[in-house]
User: Fold this.
Amino acid sequence: EAQVTQNPRYLITVTGKKLTVTCSQNMNHEYMSWYRQDPGLGLRQIYYSMNVEVTDKGDVPEGYKVSRKEKRNFPLILESPSPNQTSLYFCASSLKWGTDTQYFGPGTRLTVL
Amino acid sequence: AQSVTQLDSHVSVSEGTPVLLRCNYSSSYSPSLFWYVQHPNKGLQLLLKYTSAATLVKGINGFEAEFKKSETSFHLTKPSAHMSDAAEYFCVVSDFSGGYNKLIFGAGTRLAVHP
Assistant:
């Protein structure tokens, strides 16, 4: 089944404890991105990747890192999480950049205490 | 820069009555527009998309949207609401500035369907 998977789905952590949210797609998509969803703000892009080893900042990159060593994986790294990073995070992928439909993972709900 | 405004944060309808979710966009060129739906505790699912072909776009589950350039609108409609339509809906425009595809999301409209 073609899909985007994220792990973990739920995470409660404490300020400053490094964490990684994994994202994987099995559709051979070139383009991947991370969004965060906050009430009343819709989804905002954190980082995106147009292909392996090519990443760039989205609208709200502060406090986040990403890497794209393989085509299928695009982990989101929070080196020192803070409470304002409490949010719902979505990974998405599309065949390539452009008008292609983006497919979203199920989301990761992160709470930083 | 592209932007999207969803005119209602909450819409409530009775089952069997029409649904109208309103969306206006701002774009300096011909945009690609999407509607996504998010059911509680689920990811986002594409309902439909407009990419400069027919202005009336049909999507899944009986939804459709009409692209009106003169009004810069892309409203989502359904003739008869079903209880399972209760969800949050996002109007989205595709931004190509900077040479890459970024989705600009509206703030969302939460649709409630009452028996």
Remarks:
- Chain A touches chain B through 29 residues (CB under 8 Å).
- The CA atoms of residues 13 and 112 of chain A lie 5 Å apart.
- The mean pLDDT of chain A is 93.
- Chain A is about 0% helix and 50% strand.
